[in-house]
Amino acid sequence: MSSTDPARGTAVDGSAGAIADADARHALDASTGVIADADAARHAIYIDVLGKAGLWGAGYDWQFRHRFAVGAAASYYSFDGDHVTTLAPYVAAYPLERGHHRGFVQLGPTAVRRTTPSPVPEWSGMTTTRIDAELCAGYEYRNRVLVRVYAMASEGDHLAPWLGASFGWTL
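The chain above was modelled as a monomer; its predicted structure follows.
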């Protein structure tokens, strides 16, 4: 027995209907390779905790293809008198997926600017800027809300392993 889901216009008949429904949600424009369905929640905004942008960060990403996205996290905070500004753009790939659950890998540079104001008049303070490379991999749940947990490695002066989490919304 087969019926039609009026909201999506897809046939629903057991497993074949589920496959047709999944294909409809992930339809790609053949000429551009861009996700064609507005129901695909391609945009996400989030707060990053102990992750790509340091102690905390605000981020945005755009899924321009079914398995690929670009994004960035940024932050500014003051810690023990130092002022730290971070910008961490990335490219993401989603090699594993099951429904709203996905495994992901992100790779990109991280620019960190640290300013230490002078506590004495004889010293003018210090400002340093560095660019590191970051690789992270983890788990993502994406369905109106966004939850990510991941392990990452940052390579600059030395290799630094790290854990992070992101919480936000998909649009």
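The first helix runs from residue 15 to 25.
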